[in-house]
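request received
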Amino acid sequence: MNGDDPEAVREDVIESMERSAEVYGLSRSAGRVYGVLYFSTGPLSIPELVEETGYAKSTISNVTRKLTRIGLVQRRSSSGGGRRVRFAPETDLWFVVQDVFQQYLAREMTSAQRSLDRALDRLESEDNQEGTADRDRIEDLQETYGDLQRLLELATEHSTTELIEAIEQYDG
Amino acid sequence: MNGDDPEAVREDVIESMERSAEVYGLSRSAGRVYGVLYFSTGPLSIPELVEETGYAKSTISNVTRKLTRIGLVQRRSSSGGGRRVRFAPETDLWFVVQDVFQQYLAREMTSAQRSLDRALDRLESEDNQEGTADRDRIEDLQETYGDLQRLLELATEHSTTELIEAIEQYDG
DNA sequence: ATGTTTGTTCGGAATGAACCGAACAAAGTG
DNA sequence: CACTTTGTTCGGTTCATTCCGAACAAACAT
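response:
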């Protein structure tokens, strides 16, 4: 028995998750909530998360909603038992990333593309120097965005291993 | 000549860029500065950007530094001419994304992996139930992270068109 | 030198995010 | 029907970010 205390080890990993969360634009508390859920035996209710994390009930309520929206945790509405709402971690992180791609990035990109389309329409019959220069730039941008959009679309349609395999095969 | 005023059209596209910037975690001003540079004939100095954007000199100074760090604009230190520093937009957006992948995501991932490695070491000789359960979870996480890391690595080594082609070929 | 132009840095105001505690609504339990 | 347990919402505090203007430092021009 020369191993460390499991609880302390868990705590360290969860702290690492807190730091990761910040990098990905989430709050520290979101990282901790996910971490606690990740190591939990079963889904946890809000009071249980309060107990485990030390955060206020209201914070847990808000954070779990945000994490649910992103797809990092699932709401298991246990219709039966005493406690009502319970949260479980989504462990397939690539699935979460795909969701974010579709929900946020894809939305942003189509919105941007719409702007560019409209702009090109309005420049259609501008044949002075200024107009054509702008048109070229906008068309360039549109092409770049199109490529990124296509790539994102393909990425959301495959698993990580499929993507890795595809590229490795491509490389020969 | 039924086209719109080019300046108004440019303004609309730049406003779209401002919105995009916010989605990607940048400030509104960053989006505008990039947009102005994107449509400019040549690189612009800080006073010129002040003139074009309406932002204060200090804001432009800070924003250009941030954009340069990310790789969205380049510092063209024109050693010769009157004005000293000039900024040009990086138009290869995929290149910028790759840079962010390497600078921020890859760093975050290796850091997280280190935490997981250390945690596994410390749990090595825990053979009670709690310890083994934690170990399994951490190993799962490590594998997921490894895949994501590998995928990121491959993505930074190829252009968008290469990646698209690779996946499309893979799909048959 | 003296003055002007360019860029960075500093302090402060305004805005937004994270978190807390308290008040509240809803739904079970006695 | 009280009473408790659970979850959401609201107001307030603290802290970080964004932006401004002013002070400053460095380079250039006269």
